[in-house]
Amino acid sequence: MRQKRWMIMWCTLLLSAGLMAQTKRYAEGYDGEIVVVEGTVVDKVTDRPLPVNVKLMGSDSTIVFQGALESNGALSINIPKDSVVMVELSMIGYESNLLKLDYRDEKGIRLKRLGKIEMVEKPLVLDEVTVKASQVKMVYRGDTIIYNADAFRLSDGSMLDALIEQLPGVELKGNQILVNGRYVESLLVNGKDFFRGDPSVALQNLPAYMVNKVKVYEKEYEDAYITGTLREKPLVVDVNLKKEFSTGWITNAEAGYGTGDRYMGRVFGLMFTRQTRLSVFGNVNNTSDTRLPGSKGDWSPSWQASGVTDMKLGGLDFRWDNKEETFGVESNLKVYGEDEHSEQATSATRFYNDGDEYVRSRNEERDNQVHIMSNHRLYGKGRYWYLDFRPEMEYFHNDISKTSEGAVFNALPSESYRSASLDSIFRPAYSSTLLDAMVYNAQSRSMSDREQLRLKGYLYGSMKFERTLDHIVFIATGNRYTYEDHSFGHTMLRYGQHIAKPDDNRNQYVHSQKWENSLSAQIDYNHAFDESRNFVLRPKYTYSYNSNNAFGNLYRLDWYEGWGPEDRELGMLPSTQDLLSHMLDVANSSNSVSHTHLHKPSLELERTRYNDKGSRHYLLRLPLNITSERLDYQRGNIDTLVHRLTTRLEGSAVYRIVNDMKGDSIPRHEYKWSYNFSQSVPSLSYNIPYINDSDPLATYINRNDGLKSTHRHSATFYFQQRKQQRQQLLQAGVNASLVCNAIAHYRTYDKATGVTTSWPTNINGNWQASAYYSMSSALDDAERTTFSHGTTAGYVNSVDYISVVGSTADPKSVVRNVNLRESLGFENKWEQSTVYLKANATYRYATGNREDFTTIHAIDYDYGLTLKSELPWGVNLSTDLTMYSRRGYADESMNTNDLVWNARLSKSILKGNLTFIADGFDLLGQLSNIRYSVNAQGIQETWHNVVPRYAMLHVVYRFNKQPKKK
C-alpha cells in the first residue's frame, strides 16, 4: 500500500510539472484531494526571480522528482493532501532552501500561495587574507545596483534627497531622479510604491538615517507569472529601510527660523507592520529652495530658485496587503497650498535684418494656488488572472494677479540702472531722447480665477489559459476633465511719434470653459512559441474616443462709454447679462465641439535568447493609426463642420546584447541599438480660416495652406561596461533625431505699426546629434578614493521663419549650435571626513545665416569643493564653495563671476534623537539673480526676485517605537 501511494504521488508530481512546463493537471487514477502550491523564487537582496534547481522528496528523503524552474522563478506543484513533501531549492552561489509542505491538518484547502521564496547568496570566503574593515558604497548584482547607505557621510537631520544625490551615477533634477542618464519611473519604499507618482514626498520627508540599502533595478511587473518577463520594464529606485524601522512606527519633526523672517517646519510619521504601511507628512516653509549646504548639487545662478513662495502641504499614504500578497489596497491624498510672489525685469535685444530693437519690461505676479491630488489602487491576483484598478482625482484652483510695464525702442536707451528707461517713460514728463526712440509702451493689470478638475479611472487585467502558453492582456481607461477661467485685464498702449496709430486702451473680460471626456480600451493576445516564453508574437488592438467641448468668450468692456480702464475697477462687470452680451467681441470669441475616434491595430515581435555569456533581446513594433475626426466650429461669421480620416504607419526596433559573466573581475557589457519612426498630422483646427487680433501688437492668421504631416526619426546607440572591482563604470552613446515637415509659425514684423503677424507653416532642416562618454572608478582597493569624468558633444540645427515688412532678406533663419561639455570629479574619504572636488566647463559655439549675426564663442565653467567632517565634541560640518564663471560673451555684463559658499553645523544629543542645526546660505552674498540667454532671435537679460542670503537655526526631533518581541 505504501509503495502504491508513493508511486501515485510520484506520478502526480511528475504530471504536475507545471513546475517546469507551465502545465498543471491532476494525476490520472488518483482520487484523493490535491493541494496546488504556488510561489516565486527570488533573490533576497535584489528581489529578482531565480531559475533555481528543484528537488522533490518524500518525508523519508526519497527523491521523486528533480528539475529546474524557468527564468521567471515561478514554482507550481500539485501534492496529495494526505502526504508530506519536502522541496529543496538550490542554485550555484546561493544557500540551499528546504521547504516542508504539510497541509494534512488544514481543512478545505485547495490552493496554497507561498508568495516570494527568498534565496540567500553565499558569502565569498577568502583564503588566508587579512581584510581591513571598510564600507563598500555599491555592488552590482546582475542588472541591479545596490548602494549601502551607511557608506555615505551625511549631515545630521538629512532627508532622503541628500542621500540620493550622493549616490554614484545618480542625479537629482528637481524631483526627478536619473540613474546613469536614464529617468527613474518610480520611487519605492521596501519594494512598494510610496505616494504613487510623486517622489518629492519621500525625497523631502523620509529621514536618511532610516535607510539601509538603495537598490536600482528594472522592476518586474506584478503579473509576470502570467505574462512572462519579456516586457520592457520600468527603472525604479527601491529604498530599503533598516530592520528596526521596518515594523513599528517613527516620527520625525523639524522646525527652523532664520534671518529675513525665513521659516520652515516639517513633520513626518510612518507606521509599518508586515502587511500595513501608513505614513503622514506636513511641510510649511518660505525658503523657496530644497538644496542643502554641503551638497554636490548645482547652486549656479541658472538653478537659483526665482520668486518667493510661502508653501503649505500635507498628505497621507496607506497600503495594505494580505499575507499571501494576492490582494491589496493603496490610497493616498496630498493637499498643496502655495502663495507665490514673483518679480521680473527684462532687458532684451531683438535681432532684425534692417536694424535691431531694444525691449525693456518688468512685471510682478502673485499666484495663490490650492492643489489636491488623490490616488487609489485595488489589486488582486489568482492562479490564472490578475486585476489592477486605479481611480484618481486632481483639483486645481488659482487666483492670479499681475501688473506689468514695458517699452520697445529702435535705439539703445542709455540707462544708469536697471529699468531706468521705464521709470523715465512712465513719468508725466517724458524724456525727449527716449520719446524719439520709442516704438510703443504698455501698462497692464490683470487678474484671473481659474479652476480645474480631472477624474480618471484605469483598469488593467491579464489572464492565461490552463492548457496553453498564451495569455491575454486588457486595459481600459476613462477620463473626465473640466476647466473654467474668468480673466480680467486693463491695458493701456501708447505708440511712438513715428507710428501713425492712436493710443489703444482696453478693458477686457474673458470667460472660457472646457469639458473633455475620453475612453479607451486595449486588448493584447500574446502567443509564445516555446515553453520558456522567450519568443512571443503579440497582436494588439486599441480603440479610443475623445470628445472636447470648449468655448472662449472675449468681452470688450471698453466699447461702452464709462467702461474704459481708467473708469472702472479691475474685475467689475455690468449688472445685467443683456448689457454684457452686447460687449461680446464676436470675431475673437469661439465655440468648438470635437469628436475623435482612433483605431490602432499593431503587431509586436519580441525574443530573448540566453547563452552562457548572457542574452540577446530583439523587439519590433509596427502600429497602424486610423483616426476619424469631426470638428464643429463657430467664430464670428464662421460656422463650419470639418471631417477628416487619416492613416499613419509607425514603427520601432530595439536590439540589446548583455554579456554577463559571473565573477567580480569579469566586466559586464551591455549594448543597445534602437530606432523609432513616428508621424503626426496637423491639428484639424488649422482647417478653420480666421484671424485673431485680440492683442493689438500680435495678429494670428489661422490657415492650413496645405500643411503636411510631421515625420520624426530618432536613433540611439548605448554601451555600458560595469566591473565590481573598484566599482568601475564606463558608458558611451550617440543619438540623432530628424524632424521633417515640422510645424512652425512664420512671423513678420511691421516696424511702422509695431505689429507681429504669424501663421502656421511647414519647415524642414531641424535636426540634432550628440555623443557622450563617461567613466567612474575607485583608485584604490579600499575604494576610498574615486575619480569620474564625462565628455558630451552636441550639435543642433534650428530653423525658423522671421521677416520684416519691406525687407528683401531671406526670411529663413538658420542657427547652428555646437556644445561641448567636460566634467571632472574627485572624492576622497578618510577617517571622519570626506572631500569632493569638481570642475566643469561648457563651450558654446553658434553661427547663423543672417549677415549681421554675431558668431558666439562662449564658455561657462565652475570649480569648487564640498567638505563633510566630524569636528570635536561630536559637531558635524558640511560646507561647499564653488566659483561660477562666464566668459566670451559680446555683452561684458554677461561675463560674470559668482562665488557661492554655504555651510551647515549640526550636533545630535539624546542618542541622536535630538539634533540642532545651523545653516548659512550664500554667505558671501555672491549668488546672482540675473539670467542670460542668447539665440537667433536676440539677447535677453532677466532679473528675478529671489530669497536673499540668510542663516537659519533648526531643531530636529525623532522618535522610534518598535513592537515588543514575543
User: How much β-strand is present in the residues?
Assistant: over 45%
Mean pLDDT comes to 83
User: What Rg is obtained from the alpha carbons, in whole angstroms?
Assistant: 33 Å
* Strand runs, count: 49
Low-confidence stretches are: 1-30, 126-133
Helix content: under 10%
Form type: globular
Most strands sheet: 26 strands, antiparallel, barrel
| Oligomer type | single chain
Q: CA-to-CA gap between the ends?
A: 44 Å
Structural class by sheet pairing and helices: mainly beta
Number of helices: 8
Report on this structure.
The structure is a single chain. With 966 residues, the chain is mainly β. Helices cover 5% and strands 61% of the residues. The chain is built from 8 helices and 49 strands. The strands form 5 sheets. The chain has a 26-stranded antiparallel beta barrel. A hairpin with a 6-residue loop joins β39 and β40. The two termini are 44 Å apart.
Feature tags:
single chain; 966 residues; mainly beta; 8 helices
SSE layout:
Blueprint: H1 2-15, H2 18-21, E1 34-43, E2 53-58, E3 63-68, E4 74-80, E5 84-90, E6 97-102, E7 111-119, E8 138-141, E9 144-148, H3 160-166, E10 170-173, E11 176-179, E12 182-183, E13 186-189, E14 192-193, H4 200-205, E15 211-218, H5 224-227, E16 235-241, E17 248-258, E18 262-272, E19 276-285, E20 308-321, E21 327-350, E22 357-381, E23 385-409, H6 420-425, H7 432-437, E24 438-464, E25 471-495, E26 504-528, E27 535-556, H8 577-582, E28 590-611, E29 614-635, E30 638-649, E31 651-660, E32 668-680, E33 690-695, E34 698-702, E35 710-723, E36 728-740, E37 742-750, E38 755-763, E39 766-778, E40 785-804, E41 812-830, E42 833-848, E43 856-871, E44 875-887, E45 897-909, E46 914-921, E47 930-935, E48 938-944, E49 950-961
Parallel strand pairs: 1-7, 13-16, 34-38, 37-40
Antiparallel strand pairs: 1-4, 2-3, 2-5, 5-6, 8-9, 9-15, 10-11, 11-12, 13-14, 15-16, 17-18, 17-49, 18-19, 19-20, 20-21, 21-22, 21-48, 22-23, 23-24, 24-25, 25-26, 26-27, 27-28, 28-29, 29-30, 29-31, 31-32, 32-35, 33-34, 35-36, 36-39, 37-38, 39-40, 40-41, 41-42, 42-43, 43-44, 44-45, 45-46, 46-49, ...
